[in-house]
Amino acid sequence: MSAQHDRYSIRPGRASDAADLAQLHASVQLQAVTGGQPHPGIAAWVEDLLDGHPSVVPADFLVAEESTTGRPVASLVGLRQDWSLAGVRLPVAQIELVGTAPEHRGNRLTERLFATLHQRYAAGRVPLQVIEGIPYFYRRLGYDYALANDGGATVPAAALPATEQDRPDDVGGLTVRPATIADAEALADIDHCLADGATLTCLRDAAQWRYEIVGRRPANLSRRVVAVLEHGTDVRGYLVHGARLSAAGELMVFAAACKRPADWPQAAAMHAHLGHIGRQYEALAGQPFSAVRPILGPDHPLVRLAPPGVPRRPRGWYVRTSDPADLIARLQPLLRARWHTADLRWPEPALIISLYGRAARLEFTNGELTAATVMRDTVSPSTDPRTHAAIPPGALLQLALGHRTLPEVLHAWPDCLLRDRATEHFLTAAFPRVPVQVWPRN
Question: For the whole model, what pTM was predicted?
Fold first, then answer.
């Protein structure tokens, strides 16, 4: 072992790390916002993650410890959650709070933490890791841009609808009010209805919704406010927004859902509520309320039905999978359903997709998908006659998560190769674009 490795050890987090990790991350995260001072919202977030968060236990943190002092000098955390891709459950780990004390930077601690993290998830068969953060940096650690996040137009405060008393009263029979823990079961039911649709979503059960409503410290940077859309006593949807205005005076919107698509045309109730909340925050903080900024895609119903706003470029989530062939195998029920809907039958006993390292073997009976297994890849998949398609892992991530269609991938990746037009037609139906409506459990 090198002297540099002797200087540090990597270990799982412990509950007793709370004070040290809160101090560490408060001192290295968002320092441009605080002018170099510790960020209290980051400290409260770390403390909450180590104190009963429904998606985290202390061991989900990884800590780089200085051997001579036993002091944590770098760490990160993986928040485990289930996402639903058009009805297929996918275990996901969202990586957050990657930070190193300034005096210990340059020792490749981030690389060591991620290597340990990836080994952990490979052993635990967590197929996807996702992260936001420094542009391009995480590509060096095996991540690819594979999901769009954000991009909905920012709506100026003056454009928001208001009721006669400037309150979000009855609009089309629907009202919006703050959520209570008594709403948790209804909110979980809405999430499960959404999971059966054609979107990529992050599921929450009733316990997780209760945590979102009342579980976080007031100072926690990741604390959100949940409101419900209801008709009489029937909860029809939800709206999730920030607990304060941003530095630019914007009210962030993180999620919005309606159980019944027919209720979306009456979404003006949500926009009026956001205007009301923004003006409340303005009065409390003495800070001008400038706009509503949805952290939602431009095709989200709340965005499409909003007053005209200023378009924005989507941000990116970086995604990693240790085994793209296993990811294809996990999507077997979804692929079968898509081919069945398109009335397509594969004419051979198997379809082999090389991922330039391992391969996915899809087996068919009477043209219907019956099994998906992972196999060793051929030495030269581009020339092997048994291989129907060769897809680079980064391209596969974009296809599997519905970020890009096959024609788009073929245009961007010269090393995405298909044996014939029949294969192209079959895989085009397998991988359509999928709307992203993910609000992670941070």
Answer: 0.92
